[in-house]
Amino acid sequence: MGKLRAGVFKLSSCDGCQATLFDLPQLWDYLDFKYWLLGKRDNSLEPIDIAFVEGSVSTRGEEEFIKEIRDKSNILVTIGACATSGGIQALRNFGRPEEFTSVYPKKEFIKVLDRSTPVKEHVKVDFEIYGCPINPLILENLVKALIHNKRPEIPSYPLCMECKLRGNVCVMDAYGIPCLGPVVRAGCGALCPSVKRGCYGCFGPSKDPNVSSLVSWFRNMGLSEEEVRRLFENENAYAEEFRSLLEGELGGS
Fold it and tell me: Which pLDDT does position 252 carry in this prediction?
């Protein structure tokens, strides 16, 4: 069986998600990297079987680059919160451009688009791997599934399922700790609730989350509107399910 021609590409991000490939040397028997600035010296953007894209689209150059990547790739996979929902940098989408002058004294120094957005707002995405950073095992399963012409299984159920599988006590019920577990995607193994901390949502919204119900729960716990807002203002704040809440129900708080 021949190797898949692969490319690993970075947009606006911290490199953390693509770095998980260094934890998966077993995959290198299946992938022939044609482009990977972090992992190899000689790189060329040529037709490939699969592209792994990290980062949000935040500049005009990235907007053009992602279209070129899409044209060269048979399969495009976004990896991490920046690529799937916009990341931390998308928090600026909720502010005002003039606020940037507190950091950059002149507007001409700011060479960014009006918004930082996920890759899927610009090109067709075939698969999304969530997390900040991603779980390398999910990436490994995806690659092996594609090699064997199987559809990859990427968790879409809530984190609460992983807590149940680990036998964790619910931190909200037992300790009164706010937790996003009921509305965010599994994938991390319930790391934070396993040490009696609330989940802060690094894997983004689960499938069809009941966000308004969780917000009501938080309010009944005595959280203020500002405290509720801060729970959702994370690296996945610009995901549609959280964005609609921040711009709508909590928009005026």
Answer: 45
Whether the predicted model's global pTM rises above the 0.70 cut = yes
In the predicted model, residues of the chain with pLDDT beneath 70 are 1, 96-107, 109, 249-253
Q: Is residue 101 part of a domain?
A: yes
Q: Do 11 and 43 share a domain, yes or no?
A: yes
The upper half-sphere exposure of residue 29, i.e. CA atoms within 13 Å in the direction of its Cβ, equals: 6
24 to each of 138, 187, 198, how far by Cα in Å?
Answer: 11, 17, 29
For residue 145, count CB atoms less than 10 angstroms from its CB and return exposed for 0-12, middle for 13-18, buried for 19 or more.
middle
Q: Which of 147, 167, 189 is the last residue of a domain?
A: 147
Quick check: 246 and 237 in contact, CB under 8 A?
yes
Q: How far apart are CA 66 and CA 63, in angstroms?
A: 6
139: tokens are: 């990436």
Number of domains in the chain: 2
Do 139 and 20 meet the contact criterion of CB atoms below 8 Å apart? Answer: yes
Q: Phi/psi at 247 (nearest 5 deg)?
A: -90, -15
Give the domain range for residue 205: 159-247
